[in-house]
Amino acid sequence: MTQWVLEGLRAGIRTTRYPFAPETAAGVSPGLPAAGELARPDLERLIARCPTAALASADGRLVVDARRCVHCFRCVRGSDTPAPWQGGYEWATGEGTLGKTFTRSLHIRVVDAGDCGACLHEVKQLAGPYYSLHRLGFFISPTPRQADVLLVVGPGTDQMREALTKAYKAMPTPRTVIAVGTCALSGGVFGSNFACGGGISSILPVDVEVPGNPPPPLAILHALLLATGRAAPAAKERQTAGERMP
Amino acid sequence: MIAMAWTGAFFALCALGMLLAPFVPQRRNPLLVAIAGALASACLCVAGAYALLSGRTVDTTLGLSPLGSTIRFSLDPLSGVFVLITGIVFLATSVFSAGYLQRYLDHYSLKVFTVLYFGLLAAIAAVLLASDVLSFLVAWELMSIGCYLLVNFEHRRDENIRAGYLMLAMGEAGTLAAAVALLLLANAAGSLGFEAIRMNGTRLADGLRWTVFVLSVAGFGVKAGLVPVNSWLPRAHPAAPANVSALLSGVILNLGIYGIVRVNLDLVPPRLAGPGIVLLLVGAISAFLGILYAVTANDMKTLLAHSSIENMGIATTALGAGVVFATTGHQALAAIALVAAFYQLANHSVYKALLFFGAGTVDAYAGTRDLDHLGGLIHRMPWTALFFLIGSLSIAAIYPFSGFSSEWLTLQALLRSAELSSNLVKTAFAFAGVALALTAALAVTCFVKAFAMGFLGMPRSPAAEEAREAPRSMLAPMGALAALCVLLGILPTFVIPALGGALKSVGGASAAHTLVPPFFSHGRPSALPAKFIADFHDLGAQVGQDIVPGRGLVVLHRGGADNPVVFAMATSYGFVVLILLLGGTAFVVRRLTAARRVMREEQWDGGVHQLLPEMTYTATGFSNPVRVIFDAILRPRTVEDTQETVAQHFRVAIVRTREHPHLVDRLVLDVLTAWMAGAAGLLARMHHGKLNAYVAYVLGTLVLFLGIAALR
Ligand code: SF4
User: Domain total for chain A?
Assistant: First the structure.
């Protein structure tokens, strides 16, 4: 017992300083492919390699639809000309509709709408000491009746459609839906098929989207800050060239 | 004499009811019960109230018994309390019966019911009025048998017959013990009259006192359902029709306490503290075991039956405390404890009758009494639900309903044990206090369960889904009793002086003086010190003295100079404040939210496709924590019943059920039964069917008797 206390004191505070200072520790984010200039044959080869059609060309430039990227790294590894890659984690897009009222206390109901466990795992990390969402006034609620945010992971399977709708209807207004992870945004590898409709937006109006498969905890934190108007959304199209993956 | 005239009218009406019953058509019998029963019980109420409020004792001699003793009836304030309670419960029951009895119209003879009903009513009144041993015992026996026959009214069901036999056997054993106690007293006094016994009561030796105490408590305790002679009660209640159950709990159980009080407080004025402590502990244990089994019961009536044991236990605890205080010279405290006991009895009669009416209505109109199969009745039976809720709140001792006032008074009386000198006695009081506190907590659990599982949520059976509301004639008596529950709760300063009148019979100090200080002067100078009045004037103790009659609205026990107020409560003022607070809050909330847009969406159910009754919380589930915590006492027994078919080779079904045999059954009843069976087995060896041996028995007996004759 006493050892724990001493060790805790010795270790000091390890919680991330984000959003007050950028987090630079290694491995907090896997990054995303970035837009960039490429030679036409390379461009076409890359586009062909992407399994979820996240890559496309526009006026001879490579553009990335982060909502579809599943982090398979096929466009980087085993490719002669790898796609440009960017680090960072402030990826959430959308609108913060909740406003300043919720900056000190925001209650979140997490619903697993058929996810594989990866995104949910990242959400769970938020409650740990490293990301510690409570320090920012975010709380996980056991019931939608007291929640302001419906945080949905997974592609939105048909079996979860009713539960999701019920949870949304049970929430008091104003309410916000945050879709977390590629599956929730576009269906990911599942796309639109016999068991799911290709993303949460086919079921509920989604306000904030967090790309990533799974998105790192900091990206989810960014989405929550965005929902309450405490952070700016990611740039619509990532223009930065990004650094190359090693 | 007025009281006796009313009692005479009462007996005449009872006789009229009994005589008319066979000539009135079956269909009209419920109406006869309602009208004649209501009139008769109204007479009883008047007589009881008169005796109680006037504080006088009226005697009449009815003649000579075949044994040569005089038959005397007398109505003193102590009888008055019980007569009044009996009258109130019977009044409500008579009206309720008119509707309730309809369900038996095609199955059982209602003429028999009517005759028995009026017979029981008259017998109960006779028990309370009897003033000599002989008529008391005869009335008691008539009451016991009438009660047995009514409980067994649905006599075509096997389990009812078994419950009835147990009731009869235990009741008769009890009567026997009580009879011995009374005859011992009569023998010592040399007369069968209560008057003579009372005169002789103070001169009794300690040994005889203890004998009489033990016999009378064991004997009358059977009727009161005290542990360890309570086994019949939880079995009899589910067997009895609901209106008879209401009488059983509301009236008959009281008679047990009446017997104990009459013998041990009135006929033999207490001198030893020991019996008081025994009563205290018996009461505390009864209360705790009663409520523990009530929480785990799922049949509404079994639950209520166990809770009756609890309530009788609470009253007995207060009674025991009263005896201890009285014998140690604390007359004021004794008065408080005894008033608490009577208050508890009165409250219990009212709310238990109400709850049994509720259970009967649910049984009749929702098809079952099993809480696991009920639910959602509040939508279909709103009035029954409301009245049952008021009854539940009262019995759970929730302020401002009636149970609160009496249980609060009981606990306060127990706390006053600080003024006793013996540490052993204090320990007993502390034990009783802890047991009662635990009981109170479990009572809340129990009645949250009874109400919530029965009336809230969704129906768990098709029968419950098709429930409908009872007719007005059944709702009206429930409503009246519910109103009485509220009144008994918010007007303790009127109830306590009235009940305190009964203490005159048992030689106690006036409870009115110790508990209800005359804050209301009504223009006259008050008996209280001016400074005391002034202190309390600022607290509002004199609010309303110009409009409200009586001594005041504050229940307060005054102590010495260093602690002027030992304990106090003012439920009447509290009630007004409560109404204002609730109303004010509702008003403010309405105002604040008037402009809000209201969204109406489906209730949150965890997102399931369809909420099925099977998914909701059941009564068994609700009480399971209690079952687990008190596992050591409850000792559940798992019974496995395998059904096989085809030459005992294929299992068709395995039915596993859990039973909770009552602690008393396990420790007392089962043991006694085993002994008896063993003794009978030994005797049975005589009967082996060999003729020559039987001849030898005859010869042996003859020789034995000749021998005895020769020796004399
Ligand atoms: S990582 Fe995979 S899914 Fe993402 S853009 Fe590259 S190839 Fe497409």
Answer: 1
Question: Is A88 part of any domain?
Answer: no
Domain that holds residue B652: 617-659
Give every CB contact of residue B581 below 8 A, 6+ residues apart in sequence: none
Mutate to test the interface with A, among B601, B610, B611 (most CBs of A within 10 A): B601
Question: Is A199 inside any structural domain?
Answer: yes
Q: Any idea which residue has 């209401």 for tokens?
A: B246
CB contacts of A167 in chain B (<8 Å) are 604, 607
From A165's Cα to the closest Cα of chain B, the distance in A is 8
C-alpha B19 to ligand 1 mean position (Å): 99
Q: What is the Cα–Cα distance from B694 to B149, expressed in whole angstroms?
A: 39
Burial degree of A216 (CB within 10 A; 0-12, 13-18, 19+): buried
Q: Which residue has the higher pLDDT, B565 or B407?
A: B407
Residue A175 neighbours by CB under 8 Å, 6+ apart: A147, A148, A149, A150, A168
| Residue A126, in any domain of the structure | yes
Mean pLDDT over B240-255 rounds to: 93
| Alpha-carbon distance B378 to nearest alpha carbon in chain A (angstroms) | 24
User: Could you tell me the two tokens for A51?
Assistant: 């399994």
Q: What is the pLDDT of residues A134-165, one digit of tens each?
A: 999 999 999 999 999 999 999 999 999 999 99
Instruction: Look at residue B500 and tell me if it is in a domain.
Output: no
Residue B686 inside a domain? The answer is: yes
| C-alpha distance from residue B86 to each of B26, B209, B395 (Å) | 26, 30, 19
Q: Judge whether B46 lies within some domain.
A: no
Q: Greater confidence, B561 or B215?
A: B215
Domain with A116, as residue range(s), is: 93-227
Express as a percent the part of chain A with pLDDT over 70.
96
- Residue A165's CATH number: 3.40.50.12280
Expressed in angstroms and rounded, the spacing between residue A194 Cα and the centre of ligand 1 is 24
Q: What is the biggest distance separating any 2 CA atoms in chain B, rounded to whole angstroms?
A: 107
Q: What pTM was computed for the model? A: 0.84
pLDDT for A241: 37
CA distance B250 to chain A (A): 45
Q: Which residue of chain B comes nearest to A166, CA vs CA?
A: B607
pLDDT computed for residue B507 by the predictor: 60
Q: Is residue B199 part of a domain?
A: no
Classify residue A217: in a domain, yes or no: yes
Contact residues on chain A for B600, CB-CB shorter than 8 A: none
Q: Write out chain B residues lying below 8 Å of A169, CB-based.
A: 601-602
Q: What is the ipTM of this complex?
A: 0.76
Three-class DSSP category at A27: coil
Domain total of chain B: 2
